[in-house]
Design brief:
The chain is of the alpha/beta class and 149 residues long. Strand 4 and strand 5 form a beta hairpin. The longest helix is centred in the last third of the chain and has 28 residues. It is globular, with a radius of gyration of 16 Å.
């Protein structure tokens, strides 16, 4: 991970992020209900809902996701909770980079069905492995480009 120092966690609001690729009010409501129940059972309060209904996960160009990132940057959000990692995006390297980035801002991340909690050491190790892989891929791409010159 980029940040090797100790990060002070933000105790701000909890963001629940929901997404479905095809517009489906019922599917969004099911995700929201599941995540709200999880948050309440785990004593989270100050819950904010961010829902992208009808947006694919191939990139991060989604209105609610952009608003979530703005609120994270503003220091409003302390924890992000999703149903599963795929709700954030389909490219796991991009998703893990995003999680690493929000952690550096003091924001924790939980994915319920993946049983992922960024506050658990094993999950930080997973983030480190993905980051190492990404860095190695970038280095290989640079070598390939250099060899073509």
């Amino acid at each position: 991970m980029k940040n090797k120092g100790k990060v002070v966690l933000n105790k701000g609001n909890v963001a629940i992020y929901c997404r479905v690729a095809r517009e489906d009010d019922e599917a969004i409501k099911i995700q929201e209900t599941m995540l709200r129940r999880f948050a309440e059972e785990n004593d989270y309060d100050n819950i904010s809902i961010y829902a992208d209904n009808g947006f694919h996960g191939l990139n991060f160009e989604r209105p609610a996701f952009k608003r979530l990132n703005e609120d994270i940057s503003a220091g409003i959000i302390g924890t992000v909770i999703v149903k599963d990692m795929c709700r954030l995006g389909r490219n796991f390297i991009d998703v893990f980079n995003w999680v690493d980035n929000i952690q550096s801002k003091g924001v924790s991340f939980k994915s319920i069905t993946d049983d992922f909690n960024s506050l658990q050491e094993i999950n930080n190790t997973i983030l480190q492995l993905f980051n190492d892989y990404r860095v190695n891929q970038q280095a290989r791409n640079c070598v390939k480009k250099t060899n073509k010159i």
